[in-house]
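So, can you check this record?

>
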Amino acid sequence: MTPAPEPADLPDSVFFKLVRVVNLTARPFQQRVGRQHQLTLNEWRTMAVLGTRPGLTARQVADLTGLDKMAVSRALGGLQRHKRLHRHEDPTDLRCTRLYLSSVGKSLFATVKAQARQREAELFAGVAPDELGQLDAILDRLIESVADRADRPA
């Protein structure tokens, strides 16, 4: 019987590499886009979701971004302070607040989205389209797997 291979050193693990890619892409975002527009990374993540799916609740934003509730709350607070966000009570459930980008927020979203698309194109320039498709499918499966585990009681 062949022994199982030794696990890779942490820096060589797939998980560590995923974290590293996030960090390497987040740093330039904050240096270029964040400072220019007074926008934190978590505020941008929140805007990105609300810009394409207006009317979500804070919990839905947390689920879609993978951020914890406190990080989403802080991001929403920052967006609201800069007049980039409107909150509206849900007429069908008064316990819920629905979130929408303001006109200022929509304008900023359009600007930053264009910069994010450009950065994404730079990041994936060396990756073949079929490889990118495979990566996309694998990431979708990973997200689904992690989300399923997070929803289960401990």
Q: What stands out?
A: The mean pLDDT is 89.
